[in-house]
Design goal:
- The structure is a single chain.
- The chain contains seven helices and no strands.
- With 179 residues, the chain is an all-alpha fold.
- The protein has two domains: 82 residues, no CATH class; 57 residues, no CATH class.
Length: 179
């Protein structure tokens, strides 16, 4: 239970810090872009036009599109085309942290319940096997939801989880703290 709580908190804090850093970077890029739009609007319009041309638009269409996009909302246009940022939908570190904590907790319930209810003699192998099954289900589900190839996702998740369990078990053995 302590490991579950520590892991959930650690995952949540790590996600919060990571997404907060991403959000800070996005906000800094938006401030810089806003400043560039104020100081050199014609150069920024030309830059937007060039970017639209690189997407396959003709020069005249790119110019018209750049002018229309800039007339409506110059910062949004440049942020989306140049920076690949939607200013209205920046990453939310609190939501990311909560999602990570909940995901970790749900995933940690499998080994916790198996460890609690499995007989002493088979606790470790049954936990190892049940976690691998849960990881295979997780890999299959995530691939299905994302429209990706299932085999690759399952192998990646199962091998990563198996490696983590083996390393954790080995460290426990080295320090003689296996339960």
């Amino acid at each position: 239970v302590a490991g579950l709580a520590a892991g959930a908190v650690s995952m949540a804090l790590g996600e919060y810090v990571s997404v907060s850093t991403q959000r800070d970077t996005e906000q800094a890029a938006l401030v810089a872009e806003r400043r560039e739009l104020e100081v050199m609007p014609e150069a920024e319009l030309a830059e937007l036009e060039d970017l639209l041309e690189s997407w396959g638009l003709s020069e005249s269409t790119a110019r018209t599109a750049a002018e229309e996009m800039t007339a409506r909302d110059p910062l949004a246009a440049h942020a989306q085309v140049e920076l690949r940022i939607d200013p209205a939908e920046l990453a939310n570190p609190w939501l990311a942290a909560l999602s990570s904590a909940v995901s970790f907790t749900l995933g940690a319930l499998v080994p916790l319940l198996v460890i609690v209810f499995a007989p002493d003699g088979v606790r470790i192998p049954v936990t190892f096997a049940s976690v691998l099954v849960a990881l295979a289900i997780t890999g299959t589900t995530s691939a299905w939801l994302g429209g990706a190839r299932r085999g690759r996702a399952v192998v990646r998740v199962v091998l990563g989880g198996a490696l983590a369990m083996v390393v954790t078990y080995a460290i426990g053995q080295i320090f003689d703290v296996a339960v």
